[in-house]
């Protein structure tokens, strides 16, 4: 298990990705699982950077925890920003009619598409998104 916490600024995504990459390689995590985790982490991390602390005077923390094995990875991304449950975003018809496609929430749609399971909670002042990816 690896856990790290950084201020929510774009430049901090790279060290988080490096740390998780090392962990998944050490665990022998399959390439397809690693690729999905990288895409999901980038989306969730940038959501925290752009939205969680949008009204804050300074960026708050983003905490990332990963548990991985050969066939799966369990990723938790947490922030102390404004409570927001991405699972409440209705995107069931997102791709059915591209002519009426509205902007926004494409990253959440992508995360939902790539994840095997997805869970949100708000606990003790932290938004907590847990994503399981398995092959």
Molecular structure report:
There is one protein chain. The chain has 135 residues and is an alpha+beta fold. 34% of the residues lie in helices and 28% in strands. The protein has 3 helices and 5 strands. It has a 5-stranded antiparallel beta sheet, with helices on one face. Strand 2 and strand 3 (72-79) form a beta hairpin. Helix 1 runs antiparallel to helix 2 (31-52) and helix 2 runs antiparallel to helix 3 (106-114). The longest helix has 22 residues, at 31-52. It is globular and about 40 Å long. The two termini are 19 Å apart.
Q: What's the gist of this structure?
A:
This protein has helices at 13-27, 31-52, 106-114, and strands spanning 2-7, 61-68, 72-79, 117-123, 126-134. The protein has 135 residues and is α+β, with helices and mostly antiparallel strands.
């Amino acid at each position: 298990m690896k856990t790290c916490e950084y201020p929510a600024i774009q430049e901090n995504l790279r060290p988080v990705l490096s740390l998780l990459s090392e962990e998944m390689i050490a665990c022998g995590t399959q390439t397809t699982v690693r690729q999905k985790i990288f895409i999901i982490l980038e989306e969730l991390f940038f959501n925290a950077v752009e939205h969680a602390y949008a009204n804050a005077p300074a960026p708050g923390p983003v905490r990332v925890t990963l548990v991985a094995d050969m066939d799966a990875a369990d990723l938790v991304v947490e922030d102390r920003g404004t409570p927001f449950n991405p699972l409440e975003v209705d995107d069931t018809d997102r791709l059915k009619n591209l002519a009426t496609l509205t902007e926004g929430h494409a990253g959440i749609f992508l995360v939902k598409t790539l994840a095997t399971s997805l869970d949100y909670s708000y606990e003790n002042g932290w938004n907590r998104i847990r994503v399981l990816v398995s092959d």
